[in-house]
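hey team, just a heads up i'm posting the complex here instead of the shared drive bc the drive is being weird again. everything in one block, sequence lines first with there labels, then the predicted structure for the whole assembly after. its two chains so it's a bit long, scroll down
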Amino acid sequence: MTTILNRKIQPAVQPPGRVEFPRPEIFELSNGIKVYQFNSGTQDVISIEMVFGAGSWFQTKPFTAMATNLMLREGTRNYTAKALSESLDFFGAHFENTTERDNAYVSLYSLNKHLDDTLPLLSEIIKNPLFPESELEVLASKQRQMLEVNRQKVNFLARTHFNSIIFGDEHPYGSFLGPDDIPRVSSSDLASFHASRYHSGNCIIVVAGLVKPGLLNNLEEKFGGSDWIGKPTGRLSYDISASIQKEHFIVKEGASQSAIRMGCRMFSRSHPDFSGMKVLNAILGGYFGSRLMSNLREDKGYTYGIGSAVVPLRDSGYFVISGEVGAEFTSEALTEIKSELTRLCNEQINESELSLVRNYLAGEMLRAVDGPFAQAGLYRELLEDGLDITHFEEMIDTVQHINAQQLQDLAIRYFNPEDLYTLVVGPEKI
Amino acid sequence: MIEFDRFTLDNGLRVVVHRDTSTPIVAMNILYNVGSRDEHPDRTGFAHLFEHLMFGGSINIPRYDEPLERVGGENNAFTNNDFTNYYLTVPGHNLETAFWLESDRMLNLAFSAKSFDVQRNVVVEEFRQNYLNQPYGDAWLLLRPLAYKVHPYRWATIGIDPSHIEQAGMDEVRDFYERFYNPCNAILVLAGNVETAHVKELAEKWFGVIPQGRKNERNLRSEPPQTEARSLTVDSDVPYDALYKAWHMCSRMEDGFFATDLISDILSAGQSGRLNQQLVKNLRLFSDISAFISGDTDAGLFVITGKLIKGVSFSEAETALQVEIDKICNQAVDEMELQKVKNRVEAMMEFSEMRVLDKAMNLAYFELLGDASLVNDLVNKYASVTTTDITAEARKIFRPENCSTLCYKSK
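-- predicted structure starts here --
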């Protein structure tokens, strides 16, 4: 007997399954470098990520940390920049060089079958860069032009200036690059920075993909020696000097949209309120069905996208709401954002919405550990903050068990609009 | 190598199933054979606006996103010149919710006036955010009508102007839906820890009853060959002069496609690409430059674009670029360089099969082109391109009369 299909009723919903986080294998090279290995996946590829305490926190001159990382591949003892690129490209491999505030990353992505040819290139750029002046000139010119183009965009201006408002522009978390900073770094600045920050005492290695036998020996041979030991230099401390003013405005003439940033300093990952705030943040602006998206986009049509994030840093952190809205709706948008914050303080979330958010976040966590690259990335983030998988497991627990009262308490503590800084980048001051 | 099963329902819905037991996540991709090339010239931007409306509630389900979020799912969509693609990932044990949602919005939309009003505004904001409110954002809005005079590729997916979107009416929306959002015009792909038999059951249960609908029989006017070089210079509020050059190339299914793609890689893939080495590093005429193909199904464009170093004239920049173009037309590429770009393709394919979502999208795309198994043929197709093919294709493409040039002059 066939039953008539009732399309009005959702098929049976299964509760989220257990999120399994596979543990890495952990090794130590002879010189003390720890290697974390996620050996899995269906594809015969490998990623090797070298993490150095070489972020912008450690520079004494702007642009130094970023330029050092980008210039690693632009000429080494045994390869010109061109020869190195030819070789890397020939094997279908690529590097990713990123520099954040705390750490700098140099990653190699390669097919396993070419790893014997590509791993030496990674070793070469990390241990033997020369920072040739002529290559530096080309890089600086390119970076400067890119920066000038970005400074025409309201969202870029909003992002860079907001952090300087809440941390102060002298603080590594608040400072940002100006175009005139770029030509001021020299080859010898980069060589010094490299010598002091890119060494075995300041490094961890994260491996992900299908690991071939012999990789560890290969890593030991390339990176495990005492030939690149360095003296760890200390981590200077900086004073935070937030703006006295809460409301800020930057004019961008002719802009058809305003970029909005609203938020404040917060805390690092190990803070007891971190997990709860991740849930609260999801409700506010962390997914498509969030309060901010439902209101400002799906109800009012003010924006193509608005969201919020709780961002942990090593020594601090911040919370920020961000989006671009039609310039003519700027005032209304600010009002609606504040009303959503206030609503979370005044009204407890109902069980239906809370249950939706729990399940959505459970799905997100499943996606976050899907495959060796995702697992390695997540694990590395925890490592950097001195944490391990138990922190992730606590997050899962919080998502499952936090209640409406606890969420409201967090909102009252952290989401009072009076406590938040606001920055608008738009065509006219509102 | 992506293994798969394939079947077609009585109503014409094509279904492809790829089993991957390495993940608890299942990806569902549903591709509709309608893109901005199917639009009326006075109603451009419609296919993309319509994509937004697909989330505004279907006949039995008031909101699309919410039930999916409730089962831990995540979704998105995109529209291009050729097709509209909806995709989601969901923990495997809640797969049936995905079938329920997608089949209902294929069955019928709610056509809510509120959703229509709001999404028109949202799309206008998208227009502003991505195309109007940033330097060089309108490049494609200028380049397309320069290169194409007849074919619908002459307008961009976002539309010619926000006013087209603002003036769209609800009847047009219903008509568009009737014409294009039908089982016989769609391809459904599942990738993850799924059994074909189970997928067949779910597909029959949820999609089987949907009437076949009309197939999208296209009758587009092809672009006549371009017979003289075209150019446009705009004075713009941009910090640096920028150059865009576009040449007509073959369609996706023609033999020359693979050689054309490799030509763009020889010129521009990785840091060793010729244009980067010669024009950025050696001659220092551009701060960056890239070559790529537009990826269209009908005859698309081969594009080279770059930002000029301050103080360099367009004439200097173009002359130097022409030297590189002449080189690839007149000097055979050496075997190492050709092997390099083939190796890059092979690596890309290997990385592209890491996630079920990417595999699902690729299977859908190639099924649209005629046969999902084409995805497994790609490495061979690229591998069999010879240096003679490269030269021959380069000479077909890089004829001056085949070229449209857009110059942004910094005010």
